[in-house]
Amino acid sequence: MEKFELHILGSGSALPTTRHFPTSQVVNLRDKLFMIDCGEGAQLQFRKSRLKFSRLNRIFISHLHGDHCFGLPGLISTLNLLGRTADLHIHSPKGLEELLTPMLAFFNHQMTYKIFFHAFETKEAALIYEDRSLTVTTIPLRHRMPCCGFLFAEKPRPNHILRDMIDFYQVPVYELNRIKNGADYVTPEGEVIPNARLTRPSAAPRRYAYCSDTIYLPSITEQIKGVDLLFHEATFAEDAAPRAKETFHTTASQAAQIARDAEVKKLLIGHFSARYDDEQVLLEEARPVFPNTQLAKETLCISV
């Protein structure tokens, strides 16, 4: 199966601690890297996770709170020092380009590569990136400022050719692409060979949903229904539910309810408040609601 991995660079929230870096993740799909949020220290964590800067071409910023984007100036500068020449594309809610441009102009007089900013709206789901193997769609969230999560969806792959059947029916090479994409084969004698006899289905396409930061928002369950992996913020335990509501964050048990109602396969919780010396309390609250829950930890790598 083709590589589809999630790397956790940071799983903390806004207040710094010695245990966690601010929020940042990297999706590795077939050795193409996509960064999600870029808190302080993200470039250091990039190194620790043994990821290659040269394979990073897209960054997706959920919202413009500092713990999700303060790492960008340092990362952009590092790429410049490394002599990068490939374009870098940054997707975010409106305002990031205006914030970063003066800083980049001051610290990076001679850029070795170009940066392209792509602003998106946050009130409705929208397709913001697509290539041959992947789509990225926004997930509207509710926070203290415009904010979106992201749904990374692998595209369906062509069927696998059954080589012995291809040889048996003496199928010409020029027919193989059509057959991979579902076409039947018609022999020179006019016999129709069903596609199911010539191929086997490829593995089901995989999906990863990222939801941070947001108040408890049951309306997102339809969009993330049945995803293979869901990351959902779990900033607080249930005894701090009033504080979660006040700051537009979610508790661990609420994140688990979202996972249960959306019938996802696995839940990863993170964006931990600095008040917790041990996030095990959050895991213990989530698992009774949704058993297949795991804590996000720095340098953790999960196969989707």
TrEMBL record:
- tRNA processing as a keyword of this entry, yes or no, is yes
Residues the entry annotates as binding Zn(2+) 1 = 63, 65, 143, 213
Q: What is its EC number?
A: 3.1.26.11
Database matches in InterPro entries: Metallo-B-lactamas, RibonucZ/Hydroxyglut_hydro, RNase_Z/BN
- GO MF term set: 3'-tRNA processing endoribonuclease activity; zinc ion binding
Pfam families registered for this protein in UniProt: Anti-Pycsar_Apyc1, Lactamase_B_2
Please list the cofactors this protein needs: Zn(2+)
- Where's the active site on this chain? 67
Function noted in UniProt: Zinc phosphodiesterase, which displays some tRNA 3'-processing endonuclease activity. Probably involved in tRNA maturation, by removing a 3'-trailer from precursor tRNA.
Family label: Belongs to the RNase Z family.
Entry-linked PANTHER family? ZINC PHOSPHODIESTERASE ELAC PROTEIN 1
Per its record, how is this protein called by name?
Answer: Ribonuclease Z
